[in-house]
Amino acid sequence: MNQENAFLPHVIAPKLLKIIESQTPIGKFYKKATYMSLKNEPGSLDFTIGDSHEMPLHGFVEALQKNAIPQKIGWYGYKVSLPETKKIVSEALKKHRGISIVPDDIFMTNGTIVGLAICLKMLVEEDDEVILNLPPWFGYRKMIQSVGANPIGIPVKPQTFDLDLEKIADSITEKTRAILINSPHNPTGKIFSASTFEKLANILTEASKRYGKPIYLISDETFSRIIFDNQECLSPTQFYPYSFLVYGYSKTWMAPGQRIGYIALPETMPNRPERRSLIGQLQGLYFGWCFPSALMQYALEDLEKLDLNLDKLQAKRDRMVTELQNMGYEVNIPQGTFFLLVKSPWEDDGAFAELLATNYQVFVFPGTPQEIPGYFRLSLTANDEMITQALPKFKAAREEALKIESKTGS
């Protein structure tokens, strides 16, 4: 160890250093994947993450410009959760989701990630366990580890991508403190049903009674407005009282760099006044200033009126599903989110992603670092021109992969 590294444990708390140095599947991926360095080359077609490759929604910039003009002294002073902003969220939950949550039980955050972090910090103690469903959103493991807890991964059912309720029930122990649910599920696009949530609620209720303490449900509903085929997307918080609804708007607006979201408590949650106080303290003290910017809160009334063109997004989904299937790919048809999950022609999905990148300049997210080996993920936030350019490359890459496989016999 050189002299600089020798001092590192004394600069960074040992516990935090251990978490930083621990390798999640996604961390290992970013360290070893050579093609990530090629993403910004001219002619590259990047389908890896949810950044939009089109201009912002009509009205988005205008909403920010309008509300950026100060209307009184202190317009840009410190702002917590503004009452008028919480009222807008309450009305939007009723309109879009059929969920009744009073403004006092809504806590504005600067995005979903902070909302999840606050819930975990409030609920979880050292060596507790938090159940998450595999494949997870790739940040969940680190978030759970950062509060000293152990993530317990339970794979979804391989054919349907539904929650494996039996395995979830079997995984609950006296150390289980929470379960983290994501519906629509990233990366599978699965929307979990009312029946599934009812059964999950019964499992959690029975286990809470058995161990003499509540097991909480944290519901990440980031994609709850990005739904295809006019399907219904229910919140598990409507079925289980000890639950937290966490949402972020940036995916709905295709503007992930503009952060505003919230934590909401269902009206069935016990002891809500105490929880309101705790969340407020964590937002203002523990993590820093975890409220959205004043501008984003002022603009929310106008931004709530914007509609993502779901028909256009669904048309891109349908086009890519049809074209890829015609090429011979196995494609999961997502019910929500803006991702497609595609079966890799090679068992080693990372190797096929490298082939796409190095030989065809098409970048996809391999399944192994997302804990769903044998697949790769595509983002439908690509524009139509990118899709047109990429489709023949997907076909050529599959044909090349099958030729290589037949020659090597692997």
Automatic annotation (TrEMBL):
Q: What is its EC number?
A: 2.6.1.1, 2.6.1.57
In this chain the Aminotransferase class I/classII large domain maps to 46-391
Gene Ontology MF, one: pyridoxal phosphate binding
This protein's UniProt keywords: Aminotransferase, Coiled coil, Transferase
Q: Which residues form a coiled coil?
A: 296-323
Task: Fetch the Gene3D superfamilies from UniProt.
Answer: Type I PLP-dependent aspartate aminotransferase-like (Major domain)
A Pfam family the protein falls into: Aminotran_1_2
Q: Which domain of life is it from?
A: Bacteria
Task: Extract the InterPro entries matched here.
Answer: Aminotransferase_I/II_large (IPR004839), PyrdxlP-dep_Trfase (IPR015424), PyrdxlP-dep_Trfase_major (IPR015421)
What is the protein name stated in its UniProt record? Answer: Biosynthetic Aromatic amino acid aminotransferase alpha @ Aspartate aminotransferase
Name the source organism. Crocosphaera watsonii WH 0003
Upper classification of the organism: Bacteria, Bacillati, Cyanobacteriota, Cyanophyceae, Oscillatoriophycideae
